[in-house]
Write a structure and sequence with these properties.
The protein is α/β, with parallel strands linked by helices. The protein contains 18 helices and 27 strands. Helix 1 runs antiparallel to helix 2, helix 3 packs across helix 4 and helix 4 crosses helix 5. The chain is globular. The protein binds 6-O-phosphono-alpha-D-glucopyranose (G6P). The site of 6-O-phosphono-alpha-D-glucopyranose has 15 residues, from helix 9.
Length: 605
């Protein structure tokens, strides 16, 4: 949450900051601001509520050159959405931007007598004033001292009025990545802001200070001695972070799914079996555990729900899925024999990270499924399986979900093989079915007009219900989340058998019910539930496999997916559910990629 960027070098800093903020906008879009040293080495500050475009338009009227500056796009935590609360914040000689939450800001306000000084309601400005009070001409020393006073999470980029051309940065939990390129030094909360300039970067180690100048980037260890950064390479390219002719990132990312699946699956097949040798995940991880605990948030958690529905009956060991924000405050029943699988697109979601740290403290082995290379969860887990979706920009997750599923399916297959639940032939057949989902998804993408037309009724309604049984229920959770987050239509997923214990009271004439019926085992049961809602006037959108036999008047709209194996139906179903949400949002003329109140990477509790 909150996108931050700093640049110093020979290029046009204002342009780099503003372009970077556009790339980072998915991290928050309540307000945006920049600060930079002008030609007279004075710090200028421009900040505005609203989106980055608003700030850009305002900045286009200011004619001055800058080569060093900071930029911030905000997701409000402390304080309303106002110009004053927008970052950067200035306090005496200090100008800073912040991502995170300073938990002890009240005590600091009292201890440093800041009550009358604060111009904003933010915890970030408090940190700026404390730093100013500690600053005696040595930036690194003052920042080091500041860290001793702070509780909470932070990614700070800081400029000092008497240090033109220099940027200092430090972080605790909140992410920061940095690079030195032939055109200056750059730092940001996210890789997407760096890839136009370099693919070589490093993750700023926690509580270590980095100093950026136009000619040098210096990382200091915790004792203040210079240290060589550990550089990583990313194979994302600029195209991956552009819309490439699509009207929205979300639609582009929905279309990228077949490719993302190939990139995630194919390099991990060897001799017809899933193979994690290159990921350095030994089979012993799968052999020794007697329980699996999956932890994640949002869409990633829904991928976990599908994995649970698939793996428990197959592996015959308990598979539990926990919402990370709940798990982290529980006393979980896990131990050194539990395999904890942590799923996160960004690898930075704070609740997921905290939950993983808790699991480690219980001695459990942790295996993360992460999309962003070098992210905190990836680095701190015992094992990491990277998904290869490329950057996901739209706030509503799509391609990250399907590659998380693909990675989970491969893990489950390998586990079944090494635990003797699957023979070599069965494992190979499972993998072959997994590969079959790629053309099945392509088929659904080629029929996108169907989803476009079916939202006509949906967008006139205020509520929608998704129903399914077993795996279909797990799929429907993600369908409901997608719809509500970008169309603002209230959407809930229910296990279909549970409907008549209360929820069916809400079914009246015209209420949309999206029924997912792809699982042979419970198909007839589900169809009975559909009849029940139909009898009460529901507008039924039924999703089945092609070969399913249903009476003609059961559904108002019937969409058929290709006849994939039941266990794999989630992939083509996901495409339909994503497209329904996309067209519903579009049909209501909403901001598809940046829905209200949300942010892509949730780095605050
Ligand atoms: C936010 C995003 C979701 C995402 C969730 C978990 O809520 O809007 O799309 O599923 O965080 O994010 P992660 O990066 O951990 O997968």
């Amino acid at each position: 949450m909150c996108g931050i960027i700093g640049y110093t070098g020979p290029l046009n800093a204002k342009k780099i900051l503003l372009d970077g903020l556009s790339q980072l906008e998915y991290r928050g879009y309540d307000s945006a601001g920049i600060a930079y040293f002008d030609a007279a080495s004075k710090i200028q500050l421009v900040k505005k509520t609203g989106k980055v475009a608003n700030l850009k338009e305002f900045c286009s009227r200011i004619q001055d050159n800058a080569h060093c500056g900071l930029g911030h796009t905000r997701w409000a935590t402390h304080g309303d959405v106002t110009d004053q609360n927008a970052h950067p914040h200035q306090a005496g000689r200090v100008t800073l931007i912040h991502n995170g939450i300073i938990e002890n800001y009240r005590e600091l306000t009292r201890d440093y007598g800041l009550e009358g000084k604060l111009k904003s309601q933010t915890d970030s400005e408090v940190a700026a004033w404390v730093l100013d009070a500690l600053y005696e001409g040595n930036p690194a020393k003052a920042i080091q001292n500041l860290l001793n006073h702070l509780e909470g999470s932070y990614g700070f980029c800081i400029m000092f009025a008497d240090r033109p051309g220099e940027i200092y940065a430090v972080r605790n939990v909140s992410p920061l990545v940095a690079a030195y390129t032939h055109s200056g030094a750059i730092i940001a909360s996210d890789l997407t802001a760096l890839i136009p300039y370099t693919r070589r970067y490093f993750v700023l180690p926690e509580q270590q200070i980095v100093k950026l100048t136009a000619y040098q980037l210096t990382l200091y260890d915790k004792k203040g001695h210079p240290e060589e950064p550990e550089y990583l390479e990313v194979n994302w390219n600029m195209d991956a972070a552009m819309k490439n002719g699509f009207p929205h990132f979300m639609l582009k990312e929905i279309y990228e799914q077949p490719e993302a699946l190939k990139n995630t699956i194919l390099p991990r097949i060897s001799k017809g079996l899933p193979d994690f040798t290159d990921d350095q995940i030994p089979d012993s991880v799968f052999e020794t555990c007697d329980k699996i605990h999956i932890i994640a948030c949002g869409t990633a958690m829904h991928a976990g729900m599908v994995a649970r529905a698939l793996s428990e009956p197959l592996l015959r060991i308990p598979v539990i899925v926990s919402i990370a924000s709940e798990f982290r405050y529980e006393e979980p029943l896990i131990n050194e024999n539990t395999l904890v699988i942590v799923i996160s697109q960004s690898g930075e979601t704070i609740d997921t990270l905290a939950a993983m740290r808790l699991a480690k403290s219980y001695g459990s082995k942790t295996l993360s499924i992460v999309n962003v290379k070098g992210s905190t969860i990836a680095r701190e887990s015992d094992y990491v399986l990277y998904t290869h979706a490329g950057p996901e920009i739209a706030v509503a997750s799509t391609k990250a979900y399907s590659v998380q599923l693909a990675a989970l399916y491969m893990l489950i297959c390998r586990m079944a093989f090494v635990r003797g639940k699957y023979s070599r032939d069965q494992s190979a057949a499972f993998l072959s079915s997994l590969l079959d989902v790629i053309p099945a998804m392509e088929t659904m993408l080629s029929r996108k007009e169907e989803e476009k037309n079916l939202v006509t009724h949906l967008i006139q309604q205020s509520d929608t219900f998704f129903i399914g049984r077993g795996r279909d229920y797990a799929f429907s959770l993600e369908g409901a989340l997608k719809l509500k987050e970008i169309s603002y239509i209230h959407a809930e997923a229910y296990a279909a058998g549970e409907l008549k214990h209360g929820t069916i009271a809400l079914i009246t004439e015209g209420v949309p019910v999206i029924a997912i019926a792809t699982q042979e085992r419970v198909f007839s049961k589900l169809i009975s539930n559909v009849r029940e809602v139909k009898a009460r006037g529901a507008f039924v959108i039924l999703l089945t496999k092609s070969s399913a036999v249903v009476e003609g008047n059961l559904a108002d709209i019937h969409i058929r997916i290709p006849d994939v194996d039941d266990a794999f139906a989630v992939f083509p179903i996901a495409v339909i559910l994503q497209l329904i949400a996309y067209y519903a949002s579009l049909g209501k003329s909403l901001d598809v990629d940046q829905p209200r109140n949300l942010a892509k990477s949730v780095t605050v509790e």
